[in-house]
Amino acid sequence: MSEYDSDVLVTADWVEDHLAEFESDDPDYRLVEIESPEPPDDEFPSKYHEGHIPGAIGLNWAEDLSDETQRDILKKDDFEELVGSRGIDAESTVVFYGNGHIPNWFAVFAYWEFKYYGHEDARVLDGGKDYWVNNDYPLTQDEPEYPAVEYAARGPFESIRSYKDDVDKAREAGLPMVDVRSPAEFTGEILAPEGLDETAQRGGHIPGASNVPVAENLRDDGRFKPPEELEARYQEEGIDGDETVVTYCRVGERSAIAWFALSELLGYEDVHNYDGSWTEWGNLIRVPIETGEN
Fold first, then answer.
1. Which domain holds residue 56?
2. What is this structure's pTM?
3. Where are the beta strands (DSSP E) in 101-250?
């Protein structure tokens, strides 16, 4: 196996070759930088304002793509309004990228949200913003304004999403679950990565889950590992695409990277992202947890 199952992962060279299309008012191509929730410093409101790929739209994961009151993704109407207001239509080729100490941490979640609502041509820049910057591709501070368009979502498509009841069924059936958090989060030593607010009352993991930290999907430069390496790593946990797989983390964004690797790159047909993740499970009363290593 020498190639990914699909072409949804694009290279920096590919994006650079299409910059003219991304900068056009024509909605055929749209480039979207997905920011982490917290601005980096006082000088710039965000990493996007500090510098972004020419033609890129800036969206914030927490402020734009989430319903912060319900701690959920956007409702369908709100999603349609947001996407259309940024000049994206249902036929647009949309390429996502982001930054963070895990490359594309929030960008792949945005990809997952777009696929949940049925956007057909969504892609991800391999390596994200860090790879782009570290390899001297162009940046700008110019912010594009594209004409608004009507957007009608085809979804939602629940086949890529898991809820608490689905996790209960997966546990009862002995189906594989992938916890992509750090080993310290998995064992219950800590509740959240350093610098993030703790969002759960208890530490540990869902019984039966395997720990495949999200960074194990990526090379040192932030690009995804070759398909044969991804396949071999998940086979170590008994995952070969023959059964339903559930991925989860703390709030569902890191686990979107594992979902992407399994579903989009390896082509496994029945992979679900549990976006409630440990924020939901670790706060529920009378649900089982495990601590320590498996």
1. 9-156
2. 0.95
3. 122-125, 161-162, 177-179, 210-211, 245-248
